[in-house]
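Figure 3 (text version): structure tokens given as input.
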């Protein structure tokens, strides 16, 4: 049996091509995640992202929030984590005055829809205050979430817990809580030193937690806190929850956050963020069988083969009706065809992907898997098929969709099916995970 590449997309695509992890979705994609998680928020929620820092600890000339990896600035990933959540209305990004033009360009280039840019102040609290005040200019929200622009990985479940706690807890208990914040366990022991630089004492680590972002507040609470705080708070303070407690008597509900809340602080953290995104991109794919009988058999063995490679393979007969959620969630698709007119199915998938505009911000990988009969097509026929798919791939590439083709000769027994499926899974994994056609050539020679 033979697994042969019909077409392999070249890897010389534009250097600015964006990429993103599967968990961070936009537009209609967010709708799928919203429904799946079962979250429903019936009060207005907005976000303030302070992004005015200079990023001195990275050692780079460019502020870290504007540093690019995988062709996209860090702040764009963070914005998208909030834009994908349907119940968040507005994201106010607060940047230094000299970076307003740059931020506006990022919004336009990556087609962010919920974002408003506001000029920041000389300190973190001044910038957050400017963002909070700006939210009140166009109909204040019930809850405002404050988050660091350089924490790109935040999921909807945590945002939901933060928002609901900030909104509801004051009603459920006898004292005011109208605020909430994420916390994480301390990973190092905190010590106090003397003025001479000697150990004074250490804190019992189990009793303390690290304050993280996001943090949520009733809008009136955080607005009042900033109106009442002192110049010293504006100049030297960093903790929003402390302001709410000190000036509004608001006790914050503390919620355990996931490890993914880490903050990009040093240059090496940019590489770590890129690694996480690449890994997430390669974790799953959706196989569309087209209701072919042979596809059912192949799907069963392919799922096993993908599982052996630590990849999830969702199998759908089509992407109609309820199955549309896979189109809105996944970034990698395998379209199975068994007829000679196989490209009509691939074309239909490309049309839907383009209409959903999913690939504007993120590359989508589509693999056309043609299951051939035992009757080998003529050389001229194979050349025609390859040319047709190459034409589709060239057009799709302009839309940030990477199209590949694999021809699989239909095996004759179960053992051959399993060997063939494993080979297909290996090739698909290389294309999805590395986007490097050279790896496919290596696999075919193995």
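Below: residues designed for each position.
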């Amino acid at each position: 049996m033979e697994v042969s590449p019909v077409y392999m997309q070249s890897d010389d695509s534009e250097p600015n091509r964006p990429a993103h992890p599967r968990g961070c979705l936009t537009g209609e994609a967010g709708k799928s995640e919203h429904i799946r998680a079962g979250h429903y928020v019936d009060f207005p929620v907005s976000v303030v992202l302070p992004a005015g820092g200079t990023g001195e600890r990275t050692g780079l000339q460019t502020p870290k929030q504007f540093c690019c990896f995988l062709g996209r600035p860090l702040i764009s990933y963070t914005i998208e984590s909030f834009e994908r959540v349907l119940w968040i209305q507005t994201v106010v990004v607060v940047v230094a005055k000299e970076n307003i033009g740059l931020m506006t360009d990022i919004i336009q280039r990556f087609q962010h829809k919920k974002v408003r840019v506001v000029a920041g102040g000389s300190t973190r609290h001044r910038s957050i205050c400017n963002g909070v005040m700006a939210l009140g200019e166009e109909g204040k929200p019930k809850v405002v979430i404050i988050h660091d622009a350089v924490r790109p990985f935040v999921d909807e479940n945590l945002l939901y817990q933060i928002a609901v706690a900030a909104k509801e807890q004051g009603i459920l208990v006898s004292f005011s809580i109208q605020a909430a914040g994420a916390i994480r366990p301390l990973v190092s022991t905190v010590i106090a030193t003397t003025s001479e630089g000697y150990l004074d004492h250490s804190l019992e680590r189990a009793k303390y937690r690290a304050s993280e972002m996001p943090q949520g507040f009733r809008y009136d609470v955080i607005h009042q806190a900033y109106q009442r705080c002192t110049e010293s708070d504006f100049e030297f303070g960093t903790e929003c929850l402390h302001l709410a407690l000190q000036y509004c008597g608001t006790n914050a509900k503390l919620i355990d956050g996931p490890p993914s809340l880490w903050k990009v602080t040093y240059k090496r953290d940019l590489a770590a963020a890129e690694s996480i995104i690449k890994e997430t991109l390669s974790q799953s794919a959706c196989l569309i069988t087209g209701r072919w009988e042979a596809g059912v058999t192949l799907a069963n063995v392919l799922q096993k083969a993908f599982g052996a490679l630590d990849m999830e393979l969702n199998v759908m007969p089509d992407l109609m009706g309820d199955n549309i959620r896979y189109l809105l969630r996944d970034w990698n698709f395998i379209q199975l065809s068994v007829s000679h007119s196989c490209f009509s199915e691939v074309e239909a998938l490309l049309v839907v992907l383009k209409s959903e505009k999913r690939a504007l911000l993120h590359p989508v990988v589509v693999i056309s898997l043609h299951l051939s009969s035992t009757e080998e097509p003529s050389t001229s026929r194979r050349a025609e098929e390859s040319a047709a798919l190459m034409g589709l791939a060239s057009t799709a590439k302009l839309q940030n969709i990477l199209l590949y083709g694999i021809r699989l000769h239909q095996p004759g027994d179960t053992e051959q099916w399993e060997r063939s499926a494993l080979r297909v899974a290996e090739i698909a994994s290389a294309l999805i995970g590395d986007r490097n056609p050279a790896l496919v050539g290596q696999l075919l020679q193995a």
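Residues 414-434 form the longest helix (21 residues).
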